[in-house]
Sequence to fold (304 residues):
Amino acid sequence: MKNNRFIYIKALRLPFLAGSLMPLITASVFCYYKGTFAFYPFFAAMLGVSALHLGSNLFNDYFDAPGTDSINRRITPFSGGSRVIQDHKVQPSSILLLSMLLFLIGTLCGLLFYLNGRPYVLLIGLFGLFAGLAYSAPPIKLMSVGLGEIFIFFAFGPFITLGTSYVITGILSWSDFLLGIPHGFFIMAVIWINEFPDYQADHDSKKRNVVVRLGLSKARYFYGLIMLLPFFFVILLVLATEIPYAVLLSLVAIPLSIKAIYILWDNYMSYKNLIPAQALTIITMTSVGLLISAGLFISKTLGI
Fold:
């Protein structure tokens, strides 16, 4: 029983929840900064977003299992899927069933908010659900047509911050939407760098994501740009919106981005040597989210 539990934890890829929970936390702290935070919608939003994210992880595994994951031999702790299907630990049908259950939980959370006077949550939630379902599944297969990265940018960035603030406050705000842009770039960077080890398998299985279309050498340039753009947008947000100057605290994470860029630049052909850059990408994403949240909290608490 204990081993089965660990197998399902591996299948769910729980550590990657940072990708969706970090913008949710940032948006919640922004509500605190504006004096509108409430615990009940915060926890309900956390449950709904987590369920949709984990369901998407399983759904992705299920549809990649007979394709790119079946021929991928360049596995890292951050890419190549959970491997529970390939290792015959869990039946594909069980993975699909669990993903549907998680999607149902996420949908029920959205309906709960709808019934409590948040009608637009259905539109925001449906976008997230669509991104999760269509990312790998036919007939659309967003990732295979070069659209997966941009959908992930919005689904795990601006739409989470907008949706979280909306279910807490009942108000749709451009500043809430824009707050998610830095995180959107970072989650895109996580997807982007994970496509480097997967390149050959994706290419051979006709999974034509943007990295496959560009080729590894050219894709390095875009990774560097994606890793630096969040800091540029943080500055713009401070200058152009109500977001306080204390959020500039997040700029101290710039050296992490630069280090990840250098590692990938020199090692883009070696999937094993890329692992530190994959880890740094996630660390940078999480650090910036925490620092933005800390800046908002400090500004509210100290009145600066």
User: Anything to note?
Assistant: The two ends are 52 Å apart (CA to CA).
